[in-house]
Amino acid sequence: MRLYDMELSGNCYKVRLFLGLIGQRAQLQSVNILGGEHRGEAYLRINPRGLLPALEDDGAIVVDSQAILTYLARRYGAESWLPLEPLSQARVASWLSFAAHEVHQGPNMARLHKKFGMPIDVAKVTAASLATLALLDAHLAQHHWLAEGDAPTIADIAVYPYVALAGEGAIDLSPYKHLHAWFARVRALPGYIGMPGL
Ligand SMILES: N[C@@H](CCC(=O)N[C@@H](CS)C(=O)NCC(=O)O)C(=O)O
Fold first, then answer.
1. Which residues lie with the beta carbon below 6 Å from any ligand 1 atom?
2. pLDDT tens-digit profile of 20-32?
3. For ligand 1, atom 17, which residue shows the shortest CA distance?
4. Which residue among 52, 98, 195 has the greatest number of ligand 1 atoms within 8 angstroms of its CB, and so is best to mutate?
């Protein structure tokens, strides 16, 4: 397996983290986003969307971090990471969508602004971040894991990175005690690996 990767990308990290949790390894191929390599001809042949991460496995390419988690879980992971039971599977899908939308529009954008200088509407992104964190904290007050079962799923892995990194976007995480307890549960999983900032 080869992962087209960038060390400081939370979307790439969620794939590296999940590989660690399921005991799989990928060769990491670093793509220089800041230098524009992801918009070059060679990388666009891998991912025409021009985004990281992308995963190559057995001659096939999977793009988008949520899609890659889905692929890895189904192909290499225990069934509990992506349950087959219809309602559980739908709950996981719903949180994957939450990672790509609410978490992206909130904590991820706040971090992109603070750490990489991306222009954003600070008031809008801050409000979106606080709403996202409050929703998660309330959910985690009632549930150990996001998809509501008694085991972690790829939903937790998709949502964790940019929420845990929210401080790098100047979003204060201290009021959210249930989030901190969930961070600790994620970090205690066998095979957990971190990234700079986590
Ligand atoms: N929904 C995509 C988002 C991917 C994404 O935004 N990747 C960032 C790195 S974290 C990227 O490639 N940015 C380059 C750009 O926007 O030009 C996923 O989850 O993989």
1. 9, 11, 33, 38, 51-53, 64-66, 100
2. 999 999 999 999 9
3. 51
4. 52
- Encoded amino acid at 153, one letter: T
Ligand 1 closest atom vs CA 11: 10
Q: How many CB atoms lie within 10 A of CB 80?
A: 16
For 165-178, the pLDDT digits (tens) are 999 999 999 999 99
Cα–Cα distance measured from residue 166 to residue 35, given in angstroms and rounded to the nearest whole number:
25
Which atom, in ligand 1's list, is nearest to the CA of 108?
Answer: 10
DSSP symbol at 64: S
Which residues face 5 on adjacent strands?
Answer: 30
- Nearest partner of 69 among 42, 97, 46, 50, judged by Cα: 97
- What are the strands of the beta sheet with 2-5, ordered from one edge? 27-30, 2-5, 54-57, 60-63
149, pLDDT greater than 90: no
Counting from 1 in the atom list of ligand 1, the atom nearest the Cα of 52 is 12
* Closest to 92 measured CA to CA, from 74, 111, 110, 75: 74
